[in-house]
Amino acid sequence: MNDEKGFVEVARVDDLPAEKAMAVRVANRSVALFNHNGKIYATDNQCPHMGYPLIRGRTRNGVLQCDWHGWSYAMDGGGCFTGGCDDLDTFPVRVRDGAICIKIAGATSKRQDSHYLLLKEALLSRDNWILSKAIAIMLAQGVSERETLDSLVEHLSKHIASDHGADGAFLVNQLLNGIAISQRLDKDDRLIPLMIAAKAASGRVGDRVPPQPLPQPVDWETLADWVRMFSRDRIWEGIEKCLISARESGDNDERIIPLLYECVLEPTFLGFSHNVLHISDLAELIDSFGWERSEQLLCNLGAKVVGRNRGTAQGTLREGIEHLQKIEPLLDELADEPAGRLKEFNEDRLTKGLSSGEIEPTFEAVSRALRDGAHVSQVLDSMIMLSGDRMARTPASFSPGWFNISHEMQMAGSARRTLQHASYRSAVMATYFAAWHFYQNRWLNIQPRQLSEVAKESQSPHSNAAEACSEIVELIESIQLPEVTRAVNKYIRADLDPTILLSELALSILKHDSGTELLGTLRTVYDEFERCRTHPARNQLLIGLTRFATDVRRRNDNDLATRTAKRFARRETSEDMF
User: Fold this and answer.
1) 447 pLDDT higher than 90
2) pLDDT grade, residue 564 (50/70/90)?
3) Closest by alpha carbon to 545, among 487, 485, 499?
4) Is 311 left (phi over 0), alpha (psi -120 to 50) or beta?
5) CA 148 to chain CA centroid, nearest Å
6) What is the structure's pLDDT at 457?
7) What is the 3-state secondary structure (H, E, C) of 262-328?
8) Backbone dihedral region for residue 43 (phi beyond 0: left; psi -120 to 50: alpha; all else: beta)
9) N- to C-terminal Cα distance for the chain?
10) In the chain, what's the furthest Cα-to-Cα distance?
11) Which of 137, 278, 281, 529 lies in disulfide reach of 169, CB 3.0 to 4.6 Å?
12) What gap in Å lies between CA 523 and CA 183, rounded to an integer?
């Protein structure tokens, strides 16, 4: 029964003995009623912490304590004593003629105005549950996804500036990968990648005096020379000061990212080739969030990456640096971007060189392709497809090296982004940095094959994509590596839509704890599967990703160690296993 003031009868006093509780359903929500200390209270039955039913809780002196994790709330007003902002919704109660009436209509949620505070608490706590809850509540309450992401970038900027060195670049990479993958999925499936992105942004935020720009006048040419000098001298504070000063003039925004690429593509950075990926991430951050939102992060982290301590190169790394120093004249020759892609590109010769296991043939294979007129994007296509094929054919029984091959793939992808944000010359140099990873992974000993002749077996019948995807996901989750490889091949031969399978793979990967580790590989496969749609080895990306996702679920390092030890005792080499 409703009255003129919006109160609704929900129970009788006789139904609720003293110091007891009961739940009623009102306006599609569960409401908890309490008869405590001679007074009737009405609160949301869902604990704001993790949703446990509060009617199972304990009441004392006007305080309600959840029986699961012990979070406590004032029964009048709903104030939370335990969490920072998880107040409990309470509702007005009237008792009339033995009837308990409550007012739900028009009640404003205690959490309505605290979602930003909850997200802030989540980012400081680094707790997956609080992060997921904060983002889910914000999206459910109509806060735009963009506004939520802006908050993540703002927090990450402060966190890295006060608490991280150049290693903070990996957090930016994870943030951007999580965002990029979430945008590929349906709205209802985005929470996990957004939570992973938020986890990357989370952490302690300390005090830091904001660096001030240099006194004017100081021109761009002088600042750029100083950045190069400080990069060679490994003095990141000086670089940050120069970048802030360059931003202060307002005319240098388009010059900053190319300058950072120029610095990290010096041969001496070969041992830190991931810096190319990190500068590409900073460029993407600017494109996605703008300078105003990204300035602190770019100036601080960009300086730390470009000015990082690189130590003294020794062994094969020193040889690699020396080879790169020798190709400087070639880089000058290739500074002008070709008008188009080479029609008759000798991809097999390139991939054979990349798989040679020797420094000089590895770099020479790239040089030969570029001298012949191949566009750098063609070389990168081949590198990515070669990585996918290597991942698809890697034996999983002996230190498979999934992450090493993933780095090959991601480095080639970052070299492609260099082409978008910097000069063609820089993109060429980034391609050599990517090639270095193939040489580093020579221990994998995967025999090369011609990508143009990736086997195309006869058509294989299958009922539909949904059933086939369900079978593949089940094999992944039950860790059946040989079977899942055959199932993906069967899917491909049935000529079913590969993008459907990729989305299902993404969901399967993300919901598992190892999903964060595969995030970069997943994002690269998403990007390159679309970009290289005409390449004959394109489907190897799907097969490789599936095998990677299946095998890392084993978490069986102890078993691998003991099996490796037994092979060692039998005097077997890794080559015997391959």
Assistant:
1) no
2) low
3) 485
4) left
5) 16
6) 55
7) HHHCCHHHHHHCHHHHHHHHHHHHHHHHHHHHHHHHHHHHHHHHHCCCCCCCCHHHHHHHHHHHHCH
8) beta
9) 77
10) 96
11) 278
12) 11
The answer to whether the beta carbons of residues 452 and 536 sit under 8 Å apart is: yes
- Choose among 269, 284, 261, 194: nearest CA to 232: 269
Whether the CB-CB separation of 193 and 507 falls below 8 Å is answered with no
Amino acid of residue 565: A
Structure tokens at 204: 């302690």
Please name the amino acid found at residue 521: T
Least confident of 161-165, 499-503, 550-554: 550-554
With bands split at pLDDT 50, 70 and 90, how would you rate the model's confidence at 553? Answer: confident
Task: Let me know how long the chain is.
Answer: 578
Q: What residues are paired with 31 via a beta bridge?
A: 24, 44
Mean pLDDT over 30-49 rounds to 94
Mean pLDDT within 554-560: 59
pLDDT at 312: 87
The span from the CA of 191 to the CA of 178, in Å, is 10
Beta-sheet strand order (sheet of 63-65): 58-60, 63-65, 72-74
Beta-sheet strand order (sheet of 93-96): 7-12, 99-103, 93-96
Mean confidence (pLDDT) of the chain: 90
DSSP bridge partners of 24: 31
Nearest to 576 by CA among 403, 442, 395, 449: 395
Structure tokens at 566: 């037994």
Q: How far is CA 292 from the centre of its chain?
A: 23
Whether 146 contacts 188, CB under 8 Å:
no
Place of tokens 């991430």: 281
Mean pLDDT, residues 545-572 taken together: 71
- C-alpha–C-alpha distance, residues 323 and 320, integer Å: 5
